[in-house]
Structures are given as C-alpha cells and as structure tokens.
Design goal:
Length: about 600
C-alpha cells in the first residue's frame, strides 16, 4: 500500500472516530504539499467542516493529531488555515528506496488484460511524410509504449491510404510530365519524387481553374470541370475497374513511396506490427454499405449516391458512396474497423489523427453503432492539435511543407554544431560521435513535440528543441549522462546505512517512487506529455541535487554509497521514462 493510500485510510478512520459519522472516501482530499509549506502531503479539511462543526484550523489540528498517533510513518504535521500538512518520516522514504534496489522494475504497474490496437502515421502515398506526420508518429508510438508499460497488449498499426483521387493526381502528373523519371535515375527518394508530381498536378490544376473562372464559370464548377480533374477522376474509375496499365503504374509508384517511408520510419525510430491498405479494406466497406442499404440504415439519392442521415443525432447527412459508385474515406474506415476486430478481437482501437478529423470520427463511430457492431464502444479518437513552424502553417498543395527527412537532417546538423561548440564529444571516436549526435537530434525532436499536451496545437522551433538547458530532450539526456559518470567513478556497490535525508534527497526518492503512478496516469489520459514532464522534473531535481551535494567526494562512506545508489536509480528511471517516449539515452555526452 502506498503512503497516500495509508494516509487516506488513516484520515478516514480518524474522522469517523472523532465525529462518530460514516465518512466517504471522497471526503478525504489528499494532494501534494505546496513547496512553500513544510510537509509532503496535504489533506484539505473543508469537506469535513459540516461534520466536525469546528473551525478549519481546529478540525485540521484534531485530525493531524489522530493520524500522527495511529500512523508511525507520519513524523510531524502543521496546519495552514484549512490545510493539514503531513510530514512523512525519513525512515519510510529510506525503506521504500531500499526495497527498490534489488528489483529494477519493482515500481512498474500491475498487468492489465486489455488488448489495444493503436493506429498512427497512416499516410497518403502521394507525398513524403512531413512535420505533421512526425507529431502523429511520435504520439502514436509513445502511447503504444506507455500502454504496454501499463500492462496492456498492444498492436501498433497503420492504414496506408494507397488509393483515391489524390493518388491518381500524382500518377497522372508523372504520366504527363515524368519522362520515365525514377528514384534511381533522379537520385531522389521515392516518396519525395511522387510528392514532386503531386505538387506539379496541383499547380497546373489551379491554373486551369483560374482560366475557367476568368471565362465566367463559378468556382465550385471550375473545380470539377477542369480537364486535369476530369482525367484524374477517370483514372480512379479505371483503377477500381482493375485496368491493367493504371494498376501497374499504381503499384510501381506506391512501391517507390513505401521504400521512402520505411527509411523515414527507421530514422525516426518507429515501427508497426500490422499494416492495412485502403486498396484492400475499401471493398469490405462497400459490402457493408450495401448491407446497410438493405437494413435501411443508409439511403440512396436520385443520382445513385449513398448517404446516411444523422441529423437526428445532431450531425449532418454523410456521403458514403459517390454517384459513380466510387468510395470515400469513411467507406474504407468502416471496412478497416470491422477487419481489425475480426483479425485481433481487440478491446479497443485508438485512432491517432489530427483534430481536423474530429467530425469524421464522430460519424464513423456512430455509423458502426447503427450497423450493430458492439465493438464501437471501444473506439477512441486520440485527437491532437496541429503543429506549425514559427513562420506559420504548412500547405502540401503549395509545396510549403517541411519534409520529415529534411527536418531530421536539420536536427542532426544543429546537434552537431551545438555539441561541437561545447566540446562535449571531443574524446569520442567519429563513429561514437555520430551515434551520440543522432540520439541527441532525434531525442530533441521527439521530446519537444511530446512534452506538449496532445490536445493543444503547437509551434515547433528546431533551435529551442536542441538547447541543452531547460525543458528539452538534450537537457534530460545530459542529466542521465551525469548519473552514468558517477557510476563510472564508483562502480562497486556497498551496503549503506543512513537515518536522515536532505530535502533534495527526499524529493528525488519521492519522484522515483511516483514513476508507476505517472505511467498509469499517462496511459489513462493517452498523454505522453505526462511522461515527458515527469522526466524533466526528475532531471531538474537531480541537477539541483548535483549542485548542492557532494556524491563521490561525500564526507562519509555511507553518504557516498547512498548517493551513488540514488544517482543510479535516477538514471535508470530517466532511461525507462524516456524510452516510453521513444527516446534513446547516450551513455556519454
């Protein structure tokens, strides 16, 4: 039982004895003590005033005395207005710390029986991954690792959007202007090459629209009457009809993209257990639409298009199949959801998708519910805010996106320059330097993104992310390296005996012991930001401890070996916490 649980139970029992009244657990409000007050944990006594019929100060004093008399772990208490501040005895923290030593995973959460699928990345095969995909991948991968650390069985997956009008746009442009160009002939990475032709299509398409509008056509009509759009739509119909030439070109260009994606994923350090392809799942989606028509869940309009009316649920009518029979995004999402439950029988699916698609997922989940699929209750949209650069928002169609590959190269360049200026890697070989720089660069990128609450939009600033001071990945990595430097100086472990703790020593132990509860909270809220900020707080505490305390040169052997063990546990905990963010820790910096 944790100290929080012990105090809550003791407070509840004490209040019942003091006031001869049944006390609900919710009436005992326990929180961390504010730094400006003496104590470790605080009980807010205001909820008990109606029962005690005494002032806040007297109620807190009576409760404090009762708890101290019954709970040996409490060494002292003080009262500040309606707040009872309790000091936990150093002996409790020391005993808890000693119990950690033999088992490096003794503060890991209990096992959960849940099987969860986490979908992330899920790119279109008409362009390379960009900064928005980086946030998506970092979030999805980290949430997967946090859920696993909390005891769940996790299947990491993505749906590759490999069909549709947007894919045909790149194909059509390459056929018109490519002159047989390939990744090999141009020395351009496959996904970048295909993306180049998507941008070319959009630029030419925009020009055609402007010409039609100048000729008197309205903007809406110009979009569908532009010759390039008509050709792309025709190509999509040919693809769905399995036209040999179109399908062969589609396979060729998609394979270029897949090779490019795989290289980017490897650099970023993310992976998947199972891949789904829209080109396969959309067919099942169309079958389900037909079934829904028979059931009366969906309806056809005069032009033959299929819709669902969700106005009674506070939403709108939603298109499911176009009048020409071609499917839309939600068609394949319906099919994919059903496919996944058949394949894995999961307890839930987490869709890591930007908040621009909030409405889409409300509709998807509601359709699955109306179709009678009970698994809809386990579906969750991990909606996250958009990521922008200091210069503003990126736009793929205008070719102003920041490619993930270019961004990572820029991060490596910045990390190289930063470490060179500080002379931190002078003693390492060239190979060792490159490996450390890679870990710093990718760690800086991931941490800067993951420390922000997923729900919030963010501005990514590469220069700020690589800083070795403040709330950054490199700062936490540097503190970890400091803990390893202590162990290199004192490699032998000896039994130590101390009876009291400094304030910083106690704070470090408290932080280490809270690891499992932090993992649990991060899993509950699907928020890597909780793990990121825990890592920073622990690193910051150790940095202050390092400045205030002698470790290797401590005054006595007991203090020396205790502080060495404390440093080791801080480092081990930082490494575990950062691993859940997908961040590797260098041993030297």
């Amino acid at each position: 039982m944790s100290i929080e649980q012990k105090i809550s139970e003791a407070a509840k029992n004490a209040a019942q004895l003091l006031y001869s009244t049944e006390i609900a657990s919710s009436q005992i409000q326990l929180q961390a003590c504010k730094p400006e007050f003496e104590g470790d944990l605080t009980i807010v006594v205001f909820p008990l005033l109606k029962i005690s019929k005494k002032s806040p100060e007297q109620t807190a004093t009576d409760l404090g005395e009762a708890i101290k008399n019954t709970l040996p772990e409490i060494s002292a208490f003080n009262v500040v207005k309606g707040f009872l501040n309790l000091s936990v005895a150093d002996s409790y923290w020391l005993d808890s710390f000693k119990n950690l030593q033999p088992h490096s995973h003794s503060h890991s959460p209990a096992h959960s029986s849940k099987k969860i699928m986490v979908e992330y990345s899920s790119p279109n095969t008409n362009k390379p991954l960009h900064l928005g995909h980086v946030r998506n991948n970092c979030l999805g991968y980290s949430v997967s690792e946090i859920l696993k650390a909390n005891g769940s069985e996790v299947i990491k997956t993505q749906i590759i959007n490999d069909r549709g009008i947007h894919i045909c746009k790149s194909m059509l442009a390459w056929g018109k202007w490519g002159n047989g160009e390939t990744p090999q002939s141009s020395s351009i990475k496959g996904d970048h090459l295909v993306g180049k032709y998507y941008v070319m299509f959009e630029q030419a398409y925009k020009k055609e629209q402007q010409e039609l509008i100048a000729g008197g056509m309205d903007e809406k009509s110009a979009k569908t009457k532009a010759p390039l759009f008509i050709e792309a739509s025709d190509m999509l119909r040919k693809w769905e009809a399995n036209d040999t030439a179109v399908v062969e070109l589609w396979k060729t260009m998609n394979n270029w993209v897949y090779e490019g994606f795989e290289a980017t994923y490897k650099k970023l350090g993310v992976d998947f257990d199972k891949l789904y392809y829209e080109s396969q799942t959309y067919l099942l989606g169309k079958e389900i639409i037909e079934e829904g028509l028979k059931k009366g869940v969906f309806f056809k309009k005069e032009d033959g298009s299929v819709w669902i009316d969700l106005t009674a649920d506070g939403l709108d009518e939603k298109l499911l199949l176009r009048s020409d029979g071609t499917s839309v995004y939600i068609t394949q999402d319906i099919g994919t959801a059903v496919d996944r439950y058949k394949d894995f029988n999961v307890d839930g699916i987490i869709y890591t998708v930007a908040n621009e698609q909030d409405y889409h997922f409300k509709v998807l989940f509601l359709i699955l519910k109306k179709m009678g699929y009970s698994f809809w209750e386990g579906l969750f949209h991990l909606s996250y805010g958009m990521v922008e650069l200091p210069s503003g928002r990126m736009k793929t169609r205008e070719g102003t996106v920041v490619d993930a590959d270019d961004l990572m190269e820029e991060m490596i360049s910045s990390a190289t320059q930063s470490t060179k200026e500080k002379g931190k890697l002078d003693e390492l070989t060239e190979e060792e330097k490159n490996e450390v720089i890679r870990k710093i660069a990718v760690g800086a990128l991931k941490y800067f993104i993951l420390k922000v609450d997923p729900k919030k939009s963010m501005i990514f600033n590469p220069e700020e992310s690589i800083d070795f001071n403040g709330n950054t990945g490199p700062f936490i990595q540097y503190i970890y390296v400091r803990t390893r430097s202590v162990l290199r100086k004192v490699s032998d472990e000896k039994v130590w005996t101390i009876s009291s703790l400094s304030k910083k020593e106690k704070e470090l132990i408290k932080k280490i012991l809270s690891y499992s509860s932090v993992v649990k909270e991060a899993a509950k809220l699907y928020s890597p930001a909780i793990m990121a900020n825990y890592s920073y707080e622990l690193a910051k505490e150790f940095s202050q401890f390092w400045a205030d305390h002698q470790i290797v040169n401590a005054d006595d052997e007991n203090s020396k070996y205790f502080r060495v063990q404390l440093s080791k546990e801080v480092g081990d905990t930082l490494k575990k916490a950062m691993k859940l963010l997908g961040i590797e820790m260098p041993e030297r910096m």
